[in-house]
């Protein structure tokens, strides 16, 4: 009988808690959304699977010495994985559209307004019973408004690691919902006539300009906001490898093998934080709510900035491209192009939207540096 009792106690059934069961269901739901609905599958699939593994009782994968524990400590707690992903993203980014029309920087900057509005919202939620965010936690939550998963993970790991799982899931969920969340806001704030505006063709950009741009961005970061240097620096290195044309092997590795490998480890490590004690709280509901608000405000701010620029600009800007200022690359630019084609089937806005889209990547990294300087 004692042997049978011991055997029973070593089974998962005997050790499962309701919280663990619920988190396993959440993990499987993320896997389902990734496979069936293709919601950010590259990250939601490993995050969901990591959540399932982390909540298997007696497995020890999320305890000191376990594989998920080691991945988190080596890659997330140190900030290494998000930085390596920024290296790969930089190697995949083409700044031609932005350099051909530098005004798009303003749209990328305007879309980051959602981040700072959400910071105030997170602080205001402290008035709600059961929810209490420190300034560090509020800053980590606010970065969701940038629609940039690696940046959100990096800032959360530095300021509020206890909220990392909820912040990561919110950030990537809303990135996946870009085609659903953005169009209603874009249509609400623009007229059909505005959506039909055709922008002038982009001028060609020299190779020298493409090489000098990441170096100039790095120098400006060094002088003005060194706290953003880790993210911006890795991004600029990846972009310089791409544009220099002398290290194609390194550039292709950063774009493919490196970023793919790190994405697997990053997803598993983030999923490991989706435990019942960390996720099933009123704070998580607040984070999900604030994430939706942040994303909506960021989209609206970009569109309104484009409308404002049209008041003083000689060359008309289609306000839709302002919505691409959130840094969900290239999904936000594709949504802008789709909405433009609905208004005018011959109006292709994809290349114009890529300008504020890549500017948004830099904008979210700069915003993260500002929050880190203020709340770190």
Automatic annotation (TrEMBL):
Cofactor(s) recorded for this entry are: Na(+)
- Per the record, what are the reactions this protein catalyses? oxaloacetate + 2 Na(+)(in) + H(+) = pyruvate + 2 Na(+)(out) + CO2
Q: Where in the cell is it found?
A: Cell membrane
Entry's Gene Ontology molecular function annotations: decarboxylation-driven active transmembrane transporter activity; lyase activity
Q: How does it sit in the membrane?
A: Multi-pass membrane protein
The answer to keyword Magnesium applying to this record is: no
What cellular-component terms does GO give this entry? plasma membrane
Catalytic EC class? translocase
Which BP terms in the Gene Ontology apply to this protein? Answer: sodium ion transport
Pfam families linked: OAD_beta (PF03977)
Please give the subunit comment from the record. Heterotrimer of an alpha, a beta and a gamma subunit.
Family to which this protein belongs: Belongs to the GcdB/MmdB/OadB family.
Name of the protein described by the UniProt record: Oxaloacetate decarboxylase beta chain
- The species is Aliidiomarina haloalkalitolerans
